[in-house]
């Protein structure tokens, strides 16, 4: 099982998780995100998965401009 993870806002690729790293990483993400992880993981073709998170840059932008977050939801 391989999971690519990237920013859901700007689409920036942040890395790739191998199965062996999953336990540690998911535990780490649980501390950051209270959202259901199932909502964050998108299944892609060929058995790959994509984990959608927020990158450092977008997090900073959201912190400075909370309105962007509402706009993003509106566009979805
Ligand atoms: Zn981003």
Give a nutshell description of this structure.
It comes from Oceanobacillus oncorhynchi. The protein is an alpha+beta fold and 76 residues long.
* Helix residue percentage: 40-55%
Rg to the nearest angstrom? 13 Å
Distance between the termini: 28 Å
* Percentage of β-strand residues: 25-35%
Helical run tally: 4
Pfam families: Fin
Protein name: Anti-sigma-F factor Fin
Organism: Oceanobacillus oncorhynchi
InterPro entries: Fin (IPR020115)
How would you describe what is shown here?
One of its GO terms (biological process) is regulation of gene expression. It comes from Oceanobacillus oncorhynchi. This is Anti-sigma-F factor Fin. InterPro entries: Fin. The protein is α+β, with helices and mostly antiparallel strands and about 80 residues long. The chain has one domain. About 45% of the residues lie in helices and about 30% in strands. The chain is built from 4 helices and 4 strands; from the N terminus they run E-E-H-H-E-E-H-H. It has helices at about 20-30, 35-40, 55-65, 65-75, and strands spanning about 1-5, 15-20, 40-45, 50-55. A 4-stranded mixed β-sheet has the order 2-1-4-3. A hairpin with a 4-residue loop joins strand 3 and strand 4. The longest helix is centred in the middle third of the chain and has 14 residues, at about 20-30. The termini are far apart. Zinc ion binds near residues 7, 12, 57 and 58. The site of zinc ion (ZN) has 7 residues, from helix 3.
What's the SSE blueprint?
Blueprint lengths: L1 E6 L5 E6 H14 L4 H4 E3 L4 E6 L2 H9 L2 H9 L1
Parallel strand pairs: 1-4
Antiparallel strand pairs: 1-2, 3-4
The structure holds zinc ion.
Zinc ion (ZN) binds next to α3.
């Amino acid at each position: 099982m391989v999971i690519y993870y990237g920013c859901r806002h700007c689409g920036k690729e942040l890395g790739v998780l191998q199965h062996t790293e999953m336990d540690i990483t998911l535990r780490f993400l649980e501390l950051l995100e209270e959202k259901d992880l199932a909502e964050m993981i998108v299944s892609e073709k060929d058995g790959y998965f994509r984990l959608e998170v927020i990158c450092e840059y977008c997090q900073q932008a959201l912190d400075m401009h909370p309105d962007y977050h509402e706009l993003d939801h509106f566009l979805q």
